[in-house]
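Memo to structure team: turn this sequence into structure tokens by end of day. - J.P.
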Amino acid sequence: MNAVNPNLRAVRTTCPYCGVGCGVLAKPDGQGGAAIAGDPAHPANLGRLCSKGSALGETLTQDGRLLYPMIRCKGVMERVAWSDALDHVAHRLKHIIARDGADAVAFYLSGQMLTEDYYVANKLMKGFIGSANVDTNSRLCMASSVAGHRRAFGADTVPGAYEDLELADLLVFVGSNAAWCHPVLYQRMLANKQSRGAKFVVIDPRRTDTSSEADLFLGVKPGTDTALFSGLLVHLADHGALDRDYIERHTSGFDDALARARSIAGSIGATALATGLSEPDVAAFFKLFRDTPRVVTLYSQGVNQSAQGTDKVNAIINCHLATGRIGKPGASPFSLTGQPNAMGGREVGGLANQLAAHMAFTPPDIDRVRRFWKAPDIATHEGLKAVAMFEAIARGEIKALWVIGTNPAVSLPDADLVRSALKKLELFVVSENVRSNDTVNTGPHVLLPAQAWGEKSGTVTNSERRISRQRAFLDAPGEAKPDWWMLSEVARRLGFGAAFNYSSAADVFREHAALSAFENDGARDFDIGALRSLSDDDYDALAPVQWPAPEGTPPWSRFFADGGFFTNDRKARFVAPEVPALRTETTPARPLRLNTGRIRDQWHTMTRTGLSPRLGAHLPEPFVEVHPDDALKYGLVHDGFARITTDHGQCILKVVVSERQQRGMLFAPIHWNETNASHARVGALVGSTTDPFSGQPESKATPAAVAPYEYVFRGFVLSRTELALPQHLWWARAAVAGGFGYLFADNGDLARWPAWLTARASEDLAEYMDFGGGVYRAASFTGGRIETCVFVGPAHDAGDWNVVKEMFAAASLDDEQRRMLLSGRAPEGAASGGPIVCACFGVGRNTICDAIAAGARTPAALGAALKAGTNCGSCIPEMKRLIAQVPAQPPGLAATG
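Reply from structure team:
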């Protein structure tokens, strides 16, 4: 926890992670840090934060920050003045556009940008450069939801609100591990279950932690969601559960959609066959949905990240339209957004197939935006979506790229192709707040230092269409600037100064709001005209507000209960999906399918969360999860290593054997990359197959092979500074209290470690060597404190990582502690807390198991004893599994033992 200066006030801002949009109170400490707490007044979270949000204070550091503009000169990045960097970018853009045309340049943006930054980038590229080659990493996150909404509703409209999650009697989770990825919302839903008896249905190939509270778990085969919801539509029609009046008055295309559904899954038996489920489970789900008017279907990356994602979204929406369960209290389809401002990016047209303010590339909308922006050269057709954009770079068709606030060398599919493509650019500009990540290390020509969370100021929009202020509470270090300012300065140098004469983020927001209301008589969903005349003071004080917020009309929270869709005839469209089929095939050489996703305490490529010791403590190493039957078949052992190979690349990951994984499937997290692990770039394994409507890549079902990989030695290094480890190691880096930790495996000569450490050690060096037994343990001290230590041994004999971490965090060690250190074990009578389970309060597995054995046999009892699970609650499913595994102590044992 950061110390708090009582003279500094708390600033209301929002969390920079997922799309829940939690309010945060940040109280600066006057030394570059801040104390972080949830904002009890923010309607998204009411004071609760997840483990990542709670640890934001640990990530406020200037270490590793990009502080000054830099230009590559003769292969070396050199610091330059802002004016020189901006002049260079504008000059090179002008040259390339004049020679090759506007479509030879592109912007690649981020769902973590503020709306104001997004707006200026989109306006510059589409409005004035004249190309729609501006896309965003949101393409990897929720593009299929956007496409599904637009096909069904005529606009990218989220019909419901968070309140519905508390009013629903049935909550259906489809491809959503909300317990880990949206834990604050999940806790609101869990409270509904506990207080009102709401039922949970979880539909997912993996038995995730979200399923721990499920009344019904449906472990569908990958890619069969469309079949399941097609079967549901047929069942609703055949059992008199349709809202015929709503269908007649407010929709079109029902008969065609129902006919297609019958051809896909025309009965319970056919649905079970298509999805791999049992007929009783299918029947139970259909009955629950049929008999529960207040139902919310929540879907996330398991639906979106698919080559048939848009059809999955529309299959879900079809069932809600058919029953009229949309835009009503406790009843709606609901897309859980992955990024903090993917919604804001959608509002400004950050995707290549959108114009600003939820307008499209239709002649009337193009003309409207052209006149508002006074942009005669506005783009007139859609641009290249993310995967196609980087393929065009690889072919040499796009010559210049500006990347802002994202890490495509890690996150895009076929990541090795992306890396090689970036090296072909004539102009490669990166706006970033760190000096090193995989994209920055790929060789950009220009680096522009951007303000980070806590320094920048603007707005974001969360998953329920709620606009909130993200406010600065720290001074920007060095010469870091807002993205909107950089873009505007380049625009001026390109000759567009009159259209980019902004002096503040408030100026940009007012224009954004005005465009939303321009010639909008209710024909467009996105309208925040009531905010277009905010003064600077009103903008600074803006409270969270849900759109639409048209001028002269009170805002409202839901859409479509009484129709009013945004198609030409104001009717929703039922969509007849294609027969579901995965676009790739398994083969004898690639017999498994690789599913990728997030873990509880990390975010994207760990640029921020990787700075937090407590977030790195739960799952510190990259892993692949495999079913026990597949582990046996392919010779894998739990906590061993495996090489995962696809047609695109390979990784070496730790093995987690778990019955929660489906047979024939592997799961690997996306977060690790070249800066924090040696062999764990999972993006390089995933192919670039995309959805034909949304352009979103298939990240959930890549054909793969797995084989055991053996290492003789394992160990870890702890150091006060980042280190270059010996070559040919498998390693993963994690932040630890006081420095950096490296977990590794090695097939090299054990004798190289003493020489490696001696080159970095102080004169105060303690060593234990047993080369015959394959053990080397050593620590270098400065002033009684561990400076660097190395523990190496066969299998699990290197030492206890958690025990040594605790000693490393100490300000100094006494003589007895120094003697115990090289044993790698806790002193007699002392207990190690073990691997962290509760990241919010740093409670380890051993501590929890001891409390369970002593009688705390419910999550509530553990919370009362240890605080574990009492903040975000995302560790409660793991605590429940431990409760099931740990036997209770016999009565009297604790007293006598």
